[in-house]
Design goal:
This protein is an all-alpha fold. It has one domain. The protein has twelve helices and two strands. It has a two-stranded antiparallel ribbon. α6 packs antiparallel against α7.
């Protein structure tokens, strides 16, 4: 589906209101993408987080759809807002966007949202994504964040969806080893992907109601 500018569908305010608001000299979408608010020393974390939680509760479904129908910055922000507020009614929508992988960067936000939803349906979406994209060793998309989210869901649900991907010489090893500089790099260990997802979700859990 081609992207539509929000103003074309009567939501011209959403980018300025939710995507490009500035924190410490950076727009929200860059803060979300870089993850600096997850660290202990960023001075703007409290203000950033309070605004993020408030906007996640206040944004309407129509405004979220306007963001999801636009470019990567808007989709990334929408994914985070959906995940923070646990709007599970967007599961199918963000699952479709994740599987389509039309734009860069936003897929990590979709994986965060699915991890926050925390159900078997979300694990199935992440499994389908990895089935589609791990064999594509030429593509560096959102395989790491999808694996991290799936590992978290497996631990939460008592399932083992990720086992077949991370077994020795399995699809994860093949994907990582396709680029020599990634081999044996600790950042690409499955446990590190799980840790990154845990950090995001624990952050959101600490500021929102369960």
């Amino acid at each position: 589906m081609p992207s539509q500018r929000p103003e074309e569908i009567g939501h011209g305010h959403v980018v300025e209101s939710y995507v490009t608001r500035m924190y410490g000299g950076l727009p929200r979408y860059l803060v979300l993408n870089g993850g600096r608010f997850l660290g202990p020393r960023w001075w703007h974390t409290t203000r950033f987080t309070r605004h993020l939680i408030a906007d996640a509760a206040a944004i309407t479904d129509e405004e979220l759809e306007a963001l999801l129908g636009y470019e990567w910055r808007s989709r990334l922000t929408a994914g985070w807002l959906i995940g923070v507020d646990r709007r599970e009614r967007f599961r199918t929508r963000i699952g479709d966007l994740l599987l389509a992988s039309e734009v860069c960067y936003s897929g990590g936000a979709y994986c965060f949202a699915l991890a926050r939803f925390g159900t078997h349906a979300d694990a199935e979406i992440l499994t389908a994504y990895l089935d589609r994209y791990l064999p594509r060793t030429d593509l560096r998309y959102d395989q790491p964040t999808a694996l991290g989210a799936l590992l978290r869901l497996d631990a939460h649900l008592g399932t083992h969806h990720a086992d077949r991907f991370i077994r020795p010489d399995g699809l994860w090893d093949e994907w990582v080893n396709a680029l020599p500089h990634l081999r044996d790099h600790p950042a690409h260990a499955p446990a590190e992907q799980r840790r990154s997802t845990d950090l995001q979700c624990d952050f959101a859990d600490g500021w929102t109601r369960p």
